[in-house]
């Protein structure tokens, strides 16, 4: 009680210096970027860097992607490199695998990874195993991309997480970014990887 009383009874001239303090505020130096925008930036940089990189999937071009991850890319790179596909995951995944085997670097986007189950034969048997089955002679530089698990909040039918399952398939490298810095760096690394 004495200590509190002592603080209360201090003359105003003793505490007036505290009242006159100026606090300086500066803007944060780091730019806040969403994971969606970080992935977009990473894909944009890789599309600009390498003419062999292209993106295909449902609604990735004119609609800018189901979750707007490919926003602006179709306008910048045109319909030869940003390709809208029919709703046929097995079909466009097969096209992407064939393009990768021919030396291109496709980014094959699934609206959700639940839909990758429609293309499981292409992902596992055609893309993942070919490098090993060819004794390292036939690389398949492909990126299968899309939201996985509950990230998109699209209910039970589209919210399973297949990361662990795909991670156990020889020939596949699975990445799950935690933040925007991870997302941009990992998408760029994945596109460049053989």
From TrEMBL:
What EC number(s) has UniProt assigned to this enzyme? 1.2.4.1
The cofactor named in the record is: thiamine diphosphate
Keywords from UniProt, A to Z, are: Carbohydrate metabolism, Glucose metabolism, Oxidoreductase, Pyruvate, Thiamine pyrophosphate
Q: Which GO terms describe its molecular function?
A: pyruvate dehydrogenase (acetyl-transferring) activity
Enzyme class label: oxidoreductase
* Highest taxon listed in the record's lineage: Eukaryota
Q: Which residues form the Transketolase-like pyrimidine-binding domain?
A: 33-194
- GO BP, sorted A to Z: glucose metabolic process; pyruvate decarboxylation to acetyl-CoA
What reaction does this catalyse? N(6)-[(R)-lipoyl]-L-lysyl-[protein] + pyruvate + H(+) = N(6)-[(R)-S(8)-acetyldihydrolipoyl]-L-lysyl-[protein] + CO2
**What InterPro entries does the record point to?**
PDHB_mito-type (IPR027110), THDP-binding (IPR029061), Transketolase-like_Pyr-bd (IPR005475)
Q: Which residues form the signal peptide?
A: none
The job of this chain, per UniProt, is described as: The pyruvate dehydrogenase complex catalyzes the overall conversion of pyruvate to acetyl-CoA and CO2. The pyruvate dehydrogenase complex catalyzes the overall conversion of pyruvate to acetyl-CoA and CO(2), and thereby links the glycolytic pathway to the tricarboxylic cycle.
Assembly and interaction partners: Heterotetramer of two PDHA1 and two PDHB subunits. The heterotetramer interacts with DLAT, and is part of the multimeric pyruvate dehydrogenase complex that contains multiple copies of pyruvate dehydrogenase (E1), dihydrolipoamide acetyltransferase (DLAT, E2) and lipoamide dehydrogenase (DLD, E3). These subunits are bound to an inner core composed of about 48 DLAT and 12 PDHX molecules. Interacts with DLAT.
Please identify the protein, giving its name as recorded. Answer: Pyruvate dehydrogenase E1 component subunit beta
Organism, by scientific name, is Macaca mulatta (Rhesus macaque)
